[in-house]
Amino acid sequence: MVTTQQFDSVLKNGRIVDPTNNIDGAFDLGIRHGKVAAVAENIALELADDIIDVTGQIVMPGHIDTHAHLSSPFNRSVDRAYGHAMLVESGTTTALDLAGDPTAMANGMLRRGAGLNVASLMGLVPHSTIKEDDPSPSVIRDVIADVKKRGGIGVKLLGGYHPFTPEVSADVVKEANDQLAWVAFHVGTKDSGSDMTGLREVPEITGAGRLHVAHINSYTRGMVDEPHEEVQEALRMIERMRSQWVTEAYLAQANGTNGLCDEAGNLVYNVAQNCLKARGYPTTDKGIRAALLDGYGSALVERGGRAVLVTGQEAVDVWEAASTDASLSFPVNPPTSAFTLATAKYDDGSFRVDAISTDGGSLPRNVAIERTMALVAFGALSMDEAVIKLSYTPSRMLGLLSKGHFTEGADADITVIDPATGRASMSLVAGELIMYMGRAIGKGGTWLVLEEGRGVAESSGLPFEVMELENSQLYEHWE
Ligand SMILES: [Zn+2]
């Protein structure tokens, strides 16, 4: 008989789903020192310091969100750091902060962190985070090197908001690739838009390089052709670029955008213009006002430590109080596009779009898990496939090889889902509960940095881990 405690905690009687190890069934999961120590049919009660009863619940490797928003390079009326608790409450355990700023992200994690593992990109904004409109390769190189030193893992091109020329966009991809930094693209350049015209440029912009093409669903909203035609074209493009791109799509109907208008009253950003065009509103301040009053558009506000959407006059007031520079949302993502992008496969059974993301965090649309579970209920995905799209493949995309599965020694990052609701009921990071019954209970978080960011991470006071993008799918077989 074993008399010493072998496990710090044991998740008892769950349905463990771990496709990597071909496991789907009733097992106990034992955790020791933050790692998975055993998956076994029955772990004796006396071997555990702590028992967490998960009878009847689905226990999967934690959701890794490859597109979230937890910081901003700018001061925002709604603090992006609310996104930590919001993501945690939806069941996410690891996130890629897609267009913020690593310094702002780390500060937000210290203030409002909820236990997530977070890697951060910096959004490239001319005259703000990068000096020029047409930066030279050497300027781009220096900006990327600086981001890595400040604890970021790379940069994002914000083509729908701050487009560069196709040439500069290509230089950003190349310079990021040359220093093995992450590079993500919300498509669109000075020659195109945040739609299929933008996506069609991306193979040439990618060149021989590697690129994370962000939220594929955002370019298949029917702005150029019918949504189903755009989806098929996007899927063919993804196949052609299979060895060079990593991709994700989200499942919310609501998008996120910004209502900024210039002095003449015209909407500044292409994404916001498209939202109004989609319903026949003028792309002006009058159009925005009408869309908000009609309940088509919503504005982001803070309520009780979370960001929520409001509409009608309340939304107009928020937008005016921000001098039009307010975060807005419109229900512009067709469910048909979302469905096809989430489920489309190659002949070999692997998925065309690598991951299901939220594009949420501080935007209240953290529905990746519940909508993926709806697809499982619908029969469009198996439970194994849900885990592959929510956890395993995202772990490979980012090179987080000790996540995404329950092999002995893997990180004990776990999302527990109630099959009755399809929602996460509990989650753990490194064996510690960060969410229980839909409530964030974690604090702080773990900052995921590159080797160059070790110094700043050490002095931040935050726990941190060093990522190696050599291991990522983005840089697989990269010479
Ligand atoms: Zn986004």
Total helices: the number is: 13
Question: What small molecules does this complex bind?
Answer: zinc ion
Mean pLDDT: 96
Cα-to-Cα separation, first versus last residue: 53 Å
CATH superfamily of the largest domain: Metal-dependent hydrolases
CATH secondary-structure class of the largest domain: Alpha Beta
What does the main sheet amount to? 11 strands, parallel
Classify the helix fraction into a percent range. Answer: 25-40%
The CATH architecture designation of the largest domain is Alpha-Beta Barrel
Q: Which helices and strands occur, and which strands form pairs?
A:
Elements: E1 9-18, E2 23-32, E3 35-40, E4 51-53, E5 58-61, E6 63-69, H1 82-90, E7 92-100, H2 102-112, E8 114-124, H3 137-149, E9 154-158, H4 166-178, E10 182-186, H5 196-206, E11 211-213, H6 227-240, E12 245-250, E13 257-258, H7 270-278, H8 285-293, E14 298-303, E15 306-310, H9 312-321, E16 327-329, H10 335-343, E17 355-357, E18 360-361, H11 368-378, H12 383-398, E19 414-418, E20 423-429, E21 432-436, E22 439-440, E23 444-449, H13 454-460, E24 464-466
Parallel strand pairs: 1-4, 1-5, 6-7, 6-18, 7-8, 8-9, 8-23, 9-10, 10-11, 11-12, 12-17, 23-24
Antiparallel strand pairs: 1-2, 2-3, 5-19, 13-16, 14-15, 14-16, 19-20, 20-21, 21-22
Bound molecules: zinc ion (ZN).
Describe what you observe in this structure:
It is a single chain. The protein is α/β, with parallel strands linked by helices. It folds into two domains: 298 residues, Metal-dependent hydrolases (TIM Barrel), CATH 3.20.20; 79 residues, no CATH class. It contains 13 helices and 24 strands. The radius of gyration is 22 Å and the shape is globular. The mean pLDDT is 96. The protein starts with 8 loop residues before the first strand and ends in a 13-residue tail after the last strand. The longest helix has 16 residues. Strands 6, 7, 8, 9, 10, 11, 12, 17, 18, 23 and 24 form an eleven-stranded parallel sheet that branches. Strands 1, 2, 3, 4, 5, 19, 20, 21 and 22 form a nine-stranded mixed sheet that branches. Helix content is 30%, strand content 27%. The structure holds zinc ion. The site of zinc ion has 4 residues, from strand 6.
